[in-house]
Every structure is written in structure tokens, then in C-alpha cells.
Amino acid sequence: MFRFIVQTLIMIALAFLVYLLAEALPRVTDEEIDVLKARRSSRLVGYVERSDEALKSFTEKFLRKAKVWLLQLNNFIEAKLSKFKKDTAKATALPEEEEKKGE
Q1: Under 8 Å CB-to-CB from 45, ≥6 apart: which residues?
Q2: CA separation for the pair 34, 25 (Å, rounded)
Q3: Rounded to whole angstroms, how far apart are CA atoms 84 and 91?
Q4: What gap in Å lies between CA 82 and CA 93, rounded to an integer?
Q5: Distance, CA of 68 to CA of 61 (rounded, Å)
Q6: CA 35 → CA 28, 44, 72, distances in Å?
Q7: Which member of 50, 56, 90, 95 has the lowest number of beta carbons within 10 Å of its beta carbon?
Q8: What pLDDT, on a 0 to 100 scale, did the predictor assign at position 84?
């Protein structure tokens, strides 16, 4: 019950923070946006954007390759488990069942 109360309080606090953020968003004016656009023309910002795009591309490629590796590992483990399951079933079978299979 204590955990439930603490989790409820945390959610209420989070909702209050989202409400405060929503109230603060309309305070941004067009003048502030123009100042931000003027800063974007800087060389440093261009370099940061290009490096960010390169990092994003690298991350996407890496995650795709990691997904393939994980799927291959999953298939390998599944094959080993199914083989192990078949071997275990043969080892634990009753002698009477083995005789029936042989006939």
C-alpha cells in the first residue's frame, strides 16, 4: 500500500510539472525565435548539426546490425534448446516406450 501511495504522489508531481511546462510555452515570442535563427547561421552550429546527423546515421546502422546479431543469436539458442530437449526426451523415456518405438 505504501508503494501505491508513493507512486501516486510521484505521478501527481509529474502531472503538475507537465502543467507548469504547458503554461510556460506560450510565453515564447517571435522575437526570441528570430534571435535563435540568427544564431543558427554560425559555423559552429552547422558543424554540430552535421556531426549530429553523422552520429544519428551511425547509431541507426549500428542498431540495425545489432538487431540482426540478436536475431541470429536467438536462432542459434533456439536450435540448441530444441536439440537439448530432444536428447533429454530420449534419455528420460521409459524403457517400455523405447520398446514400443522399436517395434
Answers
A1: 39
A2: 16
A3: 10
A4: 16
A5: 11
A6: 12, 16, 51
A7: 95
A8: 84
Q: Which tens digit of pLDDT belongs to each residue from 62-100?
A: 999 999 999 999 999 999 999 888 877 776 766 665 556
Torsion of CA 35, 36, 38, 41, to 10 degrees: 170
d(Cα 78, Cα 76) in Å, to the nearest integer?
5
Task: Indicate whether this model's pTM tops 0.70.
Answer: no
92: which 3 cell numbers? 528420460
Task: State the distance between the two ends of the chain, measured CA to CA, in whole angstroms.
Answer: 63
Residues in contact with 39: Cβ distance below 8 Å, sequence separation at least 6, in sequence order: 45
User: Grid cell 510556460 — which residue?
Assistant: 24
pLDDT at 34: 64
Residue tagged 526570441 (cell numbers): 32
pLDDT above 70 for 23: yes
How many helices, marked H, and strands, marked E, lie in the chain? 4, 0
